[in-house]
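pinging the channel bc i need a second pair of eyes. not urgent but kinda urgent?? the chain im working w is below, pasted from the shared doc
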Amino acid sequence: MVKKILLSTALAVSMSSFALAADYVLKFSHVVSENTPKGKAAKFFEKRLEELSKGKIDVQVYPNSQLYKDKAVLKAIKLNSVQMACPSFSKFTKTVPQLALFDLPFLFRDMEHVHKVEDGEVGQKLKDLVAAKGFVVLDYWDNAFKQLTSAKKALLMPEDAKGQKFRIMSSKVLEAQFKAVGANPQVMPFSEVYSALQQGVIDGQENTNSNIYTKKFYEVQKYMTLSNHGYLGYLVVMSKKFYNSLPKDLQEAVKQAMKEATAKEREYAAELDKEQFNKIKEYANKSGKLKIYNLNDEQKKAWKSAMEKIYPEFYDKNKIGKDLIEAAINTK
């Protein structure tokens, strides 16, 4: 017992000495657990930046909204109360509506296409728009593609959604997307979705496999369609005041650590998406309470045709912009 206490004390003194020895402290706030792709990538970034900066930057990661929730974190970053965060795109769309590009249904062919858009000219334009609002924009991180679920009816063709109530995040694009297929979109906090599905307040929802699995939505839904119709992702941003206080070599270390962390995060996200879908499938096979459907080419074409009709509603440059939408579609 005495050995354990001495060891803990030594470790605490060592960590304290490291923080005192560091020239800069970087607090990285996020809202998910450490075992998620975002959480694991944040820890990778911490270790890598401390290595690259040779201990000059002490990175402190705060998961599970320990410091801030996503709604409050952007203001905290501007005040330099926290130096780094990774909110979902939806947290930026009030000030940068063009980021709603990622909400457009069936815009992306696959995850490779998503990454080419993010890493290319379109992604840079969006970064510049966010940077103009007073942030240093580092990179895009993945969640995954969204799938559709319902308690009422299997969603194989667009008309199957007619009259059904679907929960959505606050997004004009997502609202238009469901209205295009005759459904009734309902804006609702993520934390309320399970009980709303359970009580029949809503009929269905759209989400990634990881969200469907971890929040157990599959337990209160009868049908799941692997639609891959929309993408969920995050934007990693840093305090401009903090970044500008770093000498050039440490700014370069931040960029390098982020480049490596982004590559890792994308790997983690792909692995988790596959792993958690397999768990949903296992539940479906064992319980017989959930039916999972793959869309064939004809069905997918019908959904795409019905939903992409909303694109012109967002051609205005004060929304997303026609040029940006077409550039994303044409990215090879």
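so Residues 24 and 132 are 25 Å apart (CA to CA). and Residues 1-19 have pLDDT under 50 and may be disordered. — does that match what u expected or am i reading it wrong
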